[in-house]
Predict the structure.
Amino acid sequence: MKLRALIWLTAIVSSILGGLAVYLALSVPNDLKADQVLKNARQDIEKGNTAAARESLSRIIQQYPRTDAAAAATLALIRLGDQDRARLQSEVVRLREEYEEELADVRRTVDAVAKAPPKVVTTSAPAPKKSTTTAGKKTTPKKTTTTAKKKTTPKKKTTTKRKR
């Protein structure tokens, strides 16, 4: 009986070790590849090429979702988004300050136009046209009428199928 228990224990330990070896063999290369792509993305960020960095970080998240690099890529994408949002906000503030005087002028003009009384414009109707006369007779232009001809459609030929 002791031999049988020893064999079972050996089988269980060897299957656990085999599973661990397979896990490491499959996951370590993915981790290494993801880390390399993450390093390249960080270099792109340092160079200021955020478009390429975003693409690389997105690819890491899609291709290697269960790696540490994917978590780091997610955080890096969030930081890039925050940086872009802050940069755009400061740009909007700068533009508002730059064009504030012009906007105030436009607002004053719009207010003045809105408060002004409406202008009344009068127009007179044109005089009616005189018809041409020949020897005291008024001639009116003749109306031409055309009648549309009906198109005749050819008769459809029907064929009867023979029943067998």
